[in-house]
Amino acid sequence: MEWLYLVIGLAVLGVLVLAGFVTTRTRRTPPASGGDTLAPPREDTAPTGTDTAAPEAPEVAEAPAPTPTLEQPERPASRLVRLRQRLAGQGTLGQGLLGLLSRDRLDEDTWEDIEDLLIGADIGVGPTQELVERLRTRLRVEGGEAADARAVLREELINLIGPDEDRALRVSGEGEQPGVVMMVGVNGTGKTTTVGKLGRILVAEDRTALLAAADTFRAAAADQLETWGERVGLEVVRGPEGGDPASVAFDAVQRGTSAGVDTVVVDTAGRLQNKQDLMDELGKVKRVIEKQVPVTEVLLVLDATTGQNGMIQAKVFSEVVDVSGIVLTKLDGSAKGGIVVAVQRELGVPVKLVGLGEGPDDLAPFDPGAFVDALLGGS
Fold it and tell me: Which are the contacts of 113, defined by CB distance < 8 A and separation ≥ 6?
């Protein structure tokens, strides 16, 4: 009987051990739902008939690229007003002359001072002597009162500059052909900037234009021109750095003709280290352009502050190409305003445009009367 009790006891013990093992496993099993778990729900736990696919993201239309806002350049008429205001604030030449001419007694010393002031303003010896002689004659005959002196000086300065010169810019071609403006001058005078500013003037006058970056020896020149063009919506034709400038000019005129633009403005290189090379290059550019259309204007860009150095540059370029007009940049300091007279006398061509500062619209048509009035500090 003892073995029977032993067997029964072992059986009971086995049942108890088994029951404890099952209970322990049950406590360690995670709950089917409602538990604190980061695991995603199992697919087979979804209710029958539920669409388990992730919802499609709505299509988002791509936003159109923003249209660049083009600048509206200032019209030439209002530029002339600013020209007068800018120069009137620096009317050293005119104020100095009026001060001398208003003296009670115009003796030889005074006239010598007047001559020195005019020559110092870069008018040149010949034009200075001519102006002084006319002033002496008129003031001796008409009297020397201050008001009369101013009126006489104004009239004689305008006559010296040349009120009857043809200063119109020829920016239109014959028939359906575009006008072609070649911009020439040494690097550093503001030539490429002037091309960009001229483009703005054309846009302000409601003309269509195209710019040609034919100064291929300076990559910065083409980049600079593209920046100017982008601001007012002008196309720029350029070639590879160091490429043939005549080829760029040819392509630009061809493009301008096919597009029907009014004007093609051509920037050119301005290296003066070898005059023969310069002559050959500029001559070739002009010849190649004129295989398609005539060049209507050749503008020489001069720095008004360079004085006699500018005159030397003017002579070289006048020998190279048939200059038809002059652009004087950096005419901020009117003490040097006499360069207008000197360069016209030297080249026999008129000043057509003047630059008065760094602003994008600081380029204006040259008007002798407005210029002299600004120098004299009045209207």
Answer: 100
Listed residue (17, 59, 330, 60) closest to 185, CA to CA: 330
Asked whether residue 261 is assigned to any structural domain, the reply reads: yes
Which structure tokens are listed for 360?
A: 């994008």
- Which residues neighbour 61 within 8 Å (Cβ) at sequence distance 6 or greater? none
Q: What is the DSSP letter of 104?
A: S
pLDDT of residue 307: 73
Q: What is the pLDDT of residue 21?
A: 44
Amino acid at 299: L
Per the structure, the complete domain to which residue 353 belongs is given by: 72-374
Strand positions, DSSP E, 172-324: 179-184, 209-213, 235-238, 263-267, 297-303
| Residue 233 zone, left/alpha/beta (φ > 0; ψ -120 to 50; rest) | left
Higher pLDDT residue, 28 or 169? 169
How far, in Å, CA of 239 to CA of 235, rounded?
A: 13
Minimum mean pLDDT range among 38-52, 226-240, 277-291, 327-341: 38-52
| 13 domain-assigned | no
Q: At 81, which CATH number?
A: 3.40.50.300
d(CA 288, CA 286): 5
Bridge-based pairing of strands 179-184 and 263-267 is parallel
Q: What percent of the chain clears pLDDT 90, i.e. is strictly above it? A: 40
How many CA atoms are closer than 13 Å to the CA of 306, on its beta-carbon side?
16
Containing 314, the helix (H) or strand (E) segment is helix 308-320
Starting at the earlier edge strand, list the strands of the sheet with 179-184. 235-238, 209-213, 263-267, 179-184, 297-303, 325-329, 351-355, 363-365
The number of distinct structural domains making up the chain is 1
Find residue 236's DSSP bridge partners. Answer: 211
* CA 142 to centroid of chain Cα atoms: 48
Is residue 379 a part of any domain in this protein?
A: no
